[in-house]
Amino acid sequence: MFSIPVKSLHKTIFVRLLVLFGMIILPIIILGIYLYNWSYENATKDISRNAIVQLTSYIDDLNREIEWLEIQQYDILQENKLNKIAFTWESMTNIEKKSHVNDILHRLTSIKNTNAYIKDIYIHLPTINKSISAVNAVQELDETTFQNVMSSMTYDGNRMSVISNQLAISAASISINQSNQPDIVVQIELDKQKMTDELNTLNLYPKSATFLYSNQEGVLLSSGEDGESLEKEILPNLSRSIEYTNERNSAYQMNQSYSEALELYVISFIPKEIVRKPLKKFSTWAWLFAITLFVAISIYCYAIFTFVHKPLLQLVEGFKRMEKGILDETIVHKKEDEFGFLYERYNKMLYKLQRLINQDYKQKLMMQKAELKQLQSQINPHFLYNSFFILHSLAKTEDIHRIEMFTKMLGEYFRYITRNGESNVTLKDEIKHARMYTEIQSLRFSRRIQVQFDELPKEMEEIKVPKLIIQPIIENAFEHCLEKMTDVGFLRVSFKKEKNCMYIFIEDNGNVLNENSLKVLNDYVNNIDNQQETTGLINIHRRIALTFGNKSGLQFENSEWNGLKVIVRIHIEGNDSNV
Asked: Which part of the chain is the HAMP domain (predicted)?
């Protein structure tokens, strides 16, 4: 169980904010959501209920009209005079033909005038190649129109069909001629404009639209201000399913009524803005709700800033100062809450850090500088003796040019190792020094030792590294391996860069170490104890690890030349090359 670092529970920031939020925001939100949902649901139900009643009434009236028209069609097919015209036309006199045709035209005209939905009535007579129209009288049979009528009659689904972009109802006699076609076909062409006007009476709201729809034919009629645009938008969805359209449509409320007798839908789309229109009655409450909510949010934000954000900023600024090394600025906080507890611990942490830096970190820095001085003192005498022997040999041979070159390199070498400047130098300078040492040794062992020293890649030149980390490893190779070899010795220094890691390889062709010896050598530099004797390799490994982290340091492997391969690994976090 966690203990609260304040004297009482009601002083905690969490409880204050929780109570404040619950008292101000929650009741307002609940009231607003309830009022809005209640109003919206009631308005939606009322509009949907009224729309469905109107749609059902319309589709029922349309069904009754279609039934009456179908009855008239079948009455016409039973007309005796029509049958005489169809079957005895050739044997009839002109007077009989005219009399019978006039009677049929009178009958068609009477039917047309009794129903506003009828635009024209056609009787197609393929036996005599004639068509009789209530509007155009007797004409030659239009074969294209007749075939379209026959095609529409092959489907036994909808009673209404689309023929030449017009709505029509068709019926045929039972008798079949030699062409396997009915002898008499009655086609009633519906007045699409008047049906659309009738359909438009269902659009009681602005921007609403109503459609007469068939699953086989698609949209038969459309009405409303946005009827054409909505037809283009919803036609692909309507061709899939009515339910799919209703699910995908988010801007309109869709209502529908279906007639099983006609196999037709009548569908209305009402903008949801209309559904929300009754909510305007609550505009006063809405504004009051908005203002109250704004005030509540303002109070809550101010409370958050005062009790949480501002104290957190103080803590963040304190840690930023700590990162910069400023450890003498404490945070003052008078309130008895969680931040007071944090600030008190933060101030104590600053004090402990200062004490630890004075007692531990500075001591380590002094130890490292002492180890560097010790390394420099270990290098100087041994190398100096050998240098004098080389000069003596060159002087005996009176090789003035090599003496001049050797003394210049020797001066640069000792100036570098005795310079008491920064402990870190660029890798370019460190490699230059190591290369100079290798050239000096090459003068001494020109015939016995061959050296391959690769060029340092440009992207590695400006990396800051501890001073004297490469030359002592090369010196170690000369002293313990190459000088003692009877055969020709090889030394190679190469470089490699991979993302944030850089590698420097120093390898020779001395004695091969077995796996156990390599493991002992790697453990020797990695497991460093403060009491352990500090040798050259441990000193180098420790300084690299302290500078670049534990991922960096020395590693030992067998060289491909059957000798020892020393890998200097430098891992840089991010793109920071100035350590």
From this structure: 306-358
State the distance between the two ends of the chain, measured CA to CA, in whole angstroms.
44
d(CA 372, CA 375): 5
pLDDT score of 373 more than 80: no
Q: And the tokens for 76?
A: 């016409």
> Would you say 277 and 43 are in contact if contact means Cβ atoms under 8 Å apart?
yes
Identify the top-confidence range among 39-53, 165-179, 183-197, 281-295.
183-197
Interatomic CA distance for residues 158 and 528, integer angstroms: 94
- pTM of the prediction? 0.46
Helix, coil or strand: residue 530: coil
Which tokens in the block code for residue 546? 């302290």
Residue 537 has pLDDT above 60, yes or no: yes
Q: Which residue has the tokens 């037709």?
A: 264
Residue pair 563/484 in contact (Cβ under 8 Å)? The answer is no
Nearest to 479 by CA among 508, 450, 501, 454: 508
φ/ψ (deg, to 5) at 530: -60, -25
Output the pLDDT for position 579.
41
pLDDT digits (tens, 9 = 90+) for 381-414: 667 777 777 787 778 887 788 888 888 888 888 8
Which helix (H) or strand (E) is 37 found in, with range? helix 13-77
The fraction of the chain above a pLDDT of 70, given in percent, is: 81
d(CA 67, CA 76): 14
Q: According to DSSP H, which parts of 168-226 are helical?
A: 192-200
One-letter amino acid of 257: S
Can you spell out the DSSP letters for 410-469?
Answer: HHHHHHHHH--S-SEEEHHHHHHHHHHHHHHHHHHTTTTEEEEEPPPPGGGTT-EEESSS
- Strand pairing class (118-125; 185-190): antiparallel
CA-CA-CA-CA torsion for 542, 544, 547, 549, nearest 10 degrees?
-80
Q: Spell out the alpha helix ranges (H) of 259-337.
A: 272-276, 283-304, 310-323
Phi, psi dihedrals of residue 221, rounded to the nearest 5° = -140, 145
φ/ψ of residue 225, rounded to 5 = -60, -45
Q: ∠ CA 550-552-555 to the nearest 5 degrees?
A: 110
187 Cβ contact list (under 8 Å, min separation 6): 121, 122, 123, 124, 149, 163, 168, 169, 170
Residue type, 281: K
Q: Read off the tokens for 147.
A: 């075939």
The pLDDT, as a whole number, for residue 1 is 41
Determine contact, residues 130/141, Cβ cutoff 8 Å. yes
Most confident of the following: 48-62, 302-316, 329-343, 504-518: 48-62
What is the pLDDT averaged over residues 42-71?
86
The SS3 call for residue 135 is coil
Q: Which of 211-220, 424-433, 485-494 has the lowest mean pLDDT?
A: 211-220
